[in-house]
Design goal:
single chain; about 160 residues; mainly alpha; 4 helices; about 0% strand; rod-shaped
Length: about 160
């Protein structure tokens, strides 16, 4: 009789212990799965944010190039600096420099220096007379290619 009681008690203890271990293991696996899911979700959100910053920077540099070309297309360099052109150029360059700093925040120094060089080149063609319209592209080509190559590497 006493053997049966001990056998029953041992059976209850073993069953309870096994049940506890199963629940513990299941809980840990669920927590790990949730952590992985959240990490993937965060990585996707960060990638989208980085892509948006790159897209904005590229759009702003292109707008800066178009503004510079508009000034070169005027009768002469000084006459291209109309009040409308000046307002548009100032607004654009402010946005470009803000975006350049966001690239530092989102990507770090590996992409920041090429972005800074490209933004500086765009700034230069907006405010400095290079003499000829064709020199705008020549002045921008190197920094643009360096930036785009570095961005490609960063995105892997």
């Amino acid at each position: 009789m006493q053997t049966q009681v001990w056998a029953s008690l041992i059976g209850v203890l073993l069953g309870g212990g096994m049940s506890y271990l199963a629940q513990l293991t299941t809980g840990r696996q669920a927590a790990r799965s949730e952590d992985r899911r959240q990490a993937v979700q965060l990585a996707e959100a960060r990638r989208a944010e980085r892509l948006a910053a790159l897209r904005e920077f590229i759009q702003l540099t292109q707008q800066g190039i178009r503004l510079a070309e508009a000034r070169y297309d005027a009768a002469d360099w000084p006459s291209g600096r109309t009040p409308e052109w000046l307002a548009a150029a100032r607004a654009l360059i402010d946005r470009l420099w803000i975006c350049e700093r966001m690239i530092l925040v989102l990507f770090g120094p590996g992409l920041h220096q090429p972005a800074r060089d490209y933004a500086t080149a765009v700034d230069h063609v907006l405010w400095e007379d290079l003499g000829e319209h064709d020199r705008v592209g020549d002045h921008l080509r190197g920094p643009q290619v360096a930036f785009l190559g570095a961005a490609h590497e960063q995105l892997g």
